[in-house]
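User: For a benchmark we're assembling, each entry needs the component sequences followed by a predicted structure for the full assembly. Here are entry 17's components. Please fill in the structure.
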Amino acid sequence: MAVRLADVARAAGVSLPTASQVMNGTGRVADDTRRRVLEIARELDYRPNALARSVALGRSRTIGVLAENAAGAFCMPVLIGVNRVLSSQDLASLLFDARHDPATRREHIRHMLDRQVDGIVVIGEGPDVEIAALDEQFDGPIVHAFGPHDPQHAVGVYPDEFAGGALAARELLAQGRRRIAHVTAGADLASARERRAGFEHALAEAGASCELVLHGEFTRAWGQAAAGDLLAALPDVDGVFAGNDGIAVGLAAALEAHGKRVPADVAVVGYDNVAGYGEDTAPYLTSVDPHLQLVGERAGEYLLAALEGEHGDAQPVAPALAPGATTRGEGDVRRLDLVEALLRSATAPPVVHLPPATA
Amino acid sequence: MAVRLADVARAAGVSLPTASQVMNGTGRVADDTRRRVLEIARELDYRPNALARSVALGRSRTIGVLAENAAGAFCMPVLIGVNRVLSSQDLASLLFDARHDPATRREHIRHMLDRQVDGIVVIGEGPDVEIAALDEQFDGPIVHAFGPHDPQHAVGVYPDEFAGGALAARELLAQGRRRIAHVTAGADLASARERRAGFEHALAEAGASCELVLHGEFTRAWGQAAAGDLLAALPDVDGVFAGNDGIAVGLAAALEAHGKRVPADVAVVGYDNVAGYGEDTAPYLTSVDPHLQLVGERAGEYLLAALEGEHGDAQPVAPALAPGATTRGEGDVRRLDLVEALLRSATAPPVVHLPPATA
DNA sequence: CTCCAATGACTAAGCGCTTTGGCATATACT
DNA sequence: AGTATATGCCAAAGCGCTTAGTCATTGGAG
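Assistant: Structure for entry 17:
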C-alpha cells in the first residue's frame, strides 16, 4: 500500500541501507547516487515510517504532556506554548489529562512511559507525590510548569507572581492613586502571598503603602462581598489591587453599586488577564497578564535543551500589564459616554442596519 | 536497561513467542504457563514497548488531533472531550496546532501521517481545501468538529445552533418577556443565521415574534453600540437575545447606562457560555451553552466506532441553557441587594478577616 | 496396544528502519 | 608496477515485538 524505503531503494537500483543513509544524510554516498535516490523518493512520494524509525533509534521524538487538569483556565495557554515550541523541532506531543484523579494520572503516566516518550512536561497545579515519583520511573528529562520546584531533579517554570504584584502597584501609582487596598484570597495560597508581597514591595519602593488587605477567596462572589468592608474601613480608597480577575469584576460591580465610579473614584487592577466574553476590542478590566503561553514556551525550550544534554536553571517568566478601562478609562466605565469612547477606539466599528423583523 | 519481553520469557523458562501470546491473551498456552509468565512479568515490572508493538501490528493506537487554532476559545473544550473519550480506550492523542497557517497545517498533516496515526480528528472552524484533501492522503477514519460537513467522506460533529436559538427564546418567554429583540453578528455568518432561525422558530411556535434584529459583529463593542439603536427603535423592549456573550455583556452594560435595569426591565440571554473571570459561583450572564466538550466526546466516539468499522451519521449536539442573573436575577443585577443575594447563594461564603496593613 | 486428535510449546519469518563492518573498486603515491 | 589510501556500496545484524506454521507430547477411543 504505502511506499517503503525498500521500494525507493529498488527503484533507484541501490541497496536498502544506502537508501537509508541518503535519507538521513549519513554515511558515505556518492553525490550522484544521493541525488538519484532523493529524486526517486520524491517521485514516489516516499514518507518514512516514523514509528519504525523510533524503534530502531530508541528515540520517539515524542514528548508526553501530563496535565493535572486540562479543563482549568491555566492549562491551555501553557499547553499551546509547549506544543508550539516542540512542534517547531518535529517533536510531537502526546496529551494526557489526569482530571485531578490520582488513578487516572497513574495510568496515564504508565501509558506515557510505554509509548517511549523522550521527555515529559507536567502542567501541574501544586506539589504532588506521584509526580515526584515520576523521576524514578523515567530517566529522560522532565519539566514542570507550575509544579513542585525541586531544582535537584527537574526544571520548573513559573510565572513571576512577585513581579506581577509589582506591576499592579505601579499601574495604580501611575494613575495617581494613593489610598490603596488589596483584596485577595487566603494567605495560605502561595500565589496570593507572592502577588501581595510584590505589590507591597513596589509600593514601598515608591514611598507608598497598602492600607488595607482583605483575605477571602479567588471568586467573583468574594469580590462583591469585599466592597462593603473595604468602603467601611477605607471610605476614600482610590485604588484596589484584586488578587485575580474574578475578585476584580465582582469588586468593581459592587463598588459601583455602592455609588463609586470606576475608575474615576476607584481604579481596579485584576490578575490573570482572563479574557472572557470575547473581549476582543477595548478591554474592560485592567489586569496583570502572567504570560502563560510564554511559560509553556519556556518549558518547551528547557525540555529541548535538556534533550541536548544541557541543563539550565529556569528563570521565572515575567508578566505584563494589560491595560483596560478599570484604570485607564475616564469617569465611570459604565456611563454611556465611556461606552461610546470605547466603541470609537474599537478597530472595526460594526455596520448597523435594521432588517425588517420577520412575520 | 528496561525490561524486555525476552527477559520475561527467559526468566519464565519459555520462548519469546509464548511470552508474547501470554501478554496478548492469544494462542494456546497452558494455564499453568500463563500464570507463571504473568507472575514473572509482574515481578520484573515488565512494560511492553508500545512503539515496537505498533510497528509489528501496523496500528499505533494513536490518533492525530489537528486544531485549526488551539488558542481559540472553542478549541479547548472540544479537545478535552476528544481526549477524554479516546484515552479511556488507550488511544493517545497527538496534538497539532495549525495556528491558522496553511504552511504549518500542511506540515502538521504530513507529520501526523508519518507517525502512522490510526485516525484523525480535525477541530476546524470552517471549510478548508487542504483539509478536504486529507481524505485522499489518509485512508483511516477522519472526524470533523466544526469542519466541513461532507457526509460522503467524513463524519462531522456540530453543536446544534438552531436548538440553541430556540433555548434562548424559551428562556425569554418563560421569564414573561414579550417585546423581544435580537442583536447579533452579520447575516453572512452561518452561526448567526442558525441561532436566529432557531430563535424565531421557537418564538413563532409560542405565538410570539422577534420585533427587531440588529446585525453587527460578535464583539462586546457592538453590543454596547447596539443598545442605543435598540432602545430608539423599540423603547419598551423587555427581552433580548444576544448572538454571543460578548455582545450580551456589552449590551447589558449599555442598557443599564441608558437607565434600564437588567433583568427587571430587560432580560438578556447570551450565547456560548464563555465563563470568564472565574465565574465559579453565581453566574452573571444567562447564556446558551453549546456543550463543546460534548461535541469533542461525540467526535471521539464516532472515531472509535469508525475504527471498529462502523459508520454512523452524526447527530448535532444539543445545547443547554445556563441560567444567570441577566434573566433570573431580580431587579437590577448591579444593585447591592442582588449582589448580596448572589453572595448568599454562593456555595462557600468566604471568611472575611482584616489583617493589619503592613508597615 | 495402536492410532488420531487435541494440546502446548517452539522455530522461523516478518514489520520497517538503522548501524556496523567489510569488500571491492578507484585514486594517489613511490 | 606495487603498495597505501580513500571511496562507495552492500551484507548482516539488530531494535522489540507479532503471527503463521511446525512438531513433539499427551490423552482417549478403538
